[in-house]
Amino acid sequence: MTKMEETGRLMNQQILEDWISALDALNRQIKQWVADREQSGSLSIREVPVTKNEEYIGSYQVNMLVLLSNNNHVDICPIGRFALGAIGRVDFTNYKKTFPFLYSSRKGWLSLDSRKPLTETLFNELLDQLLDN
Questions:
Q1: What is the total count of domains within the chain?
Q2: What is the CATH number of the domain that holds 115?
Q3: φ/ψ of residue 71, rounded to 5
Q4: Going residue by residue through the chain (133 aa), what tens digit of pLDDT does each one get?
Q5: In contact, 103 and 86? CB cutoff 8 Å
Q6: Phi, psi dihedrals of residue 43, rounded to the nearest 5°
Q7: Residue 40: which residues within 8 A CB-CB, separation 6 or more?
Q8: Which of 82, 85, 98, 118 counts the highest number of beta carbons within 10 A?
């Protein structure tokens, strides 16, 4: 392996580690935001491992969150590290309606639709829309 190839491999490894770290942080944040709903029994959370395979960074495993209510569920699906205009993308979906979120190292998670930062208030509004659908 040439010096340039090794440098590229190390850069790709760092990109992957940063992406997995951003996804893990998002999952932890969402769990905090829904903790009250989970304690009241109106919602349960499952972590489901998913394997992704992307050009440059290869195959990797991350956790998808599944939020279950009595009559519906919402998946928080990692779509990919390489998203147009962002570092990565995650979809909040009930498979009838989807809200995509893009990750920016400077701004954090942003709604693709509104370009607003992902806050607890916005997350709960979208979650309610998806659970009611």
A1: 1
A2: 3.30.920
A3: -120, 5
A4: 687 776 767 777 888 898 999 999 999 999 999 999 999 999 999 999 999 998 888 899 999 999 999 889 999 999 998 776 668 999 999 999 999 999 988 889 999 888 899 999 999 999 999 998 7
A5: yes
A6: -150, 140
A7: none
A8: 118
Paired tokens of 106: 């400077």
Distance CA 109, CA 89 (A): 9
Residue 83's contacts (CB-CB under 8 Å, 6 or more residues apart) are 89, 102, 103
Which residue range forms the structural domain that includes residue 128? 3-132
Strands 73-80 and 58-68: antiparallel
Question: What tokens were used for 133?
Answer: 């659908």
Instruction: Give the Cα separation of 113 and 47 in Å (integer).
Output: 26
Closest CA to 62 of 75, 74, 72, 77: 77
Q: Residue 130: is it exposed, middle or buried by C-beta count within 10 angstroms (0-12/13-18/19+)?
A: buried
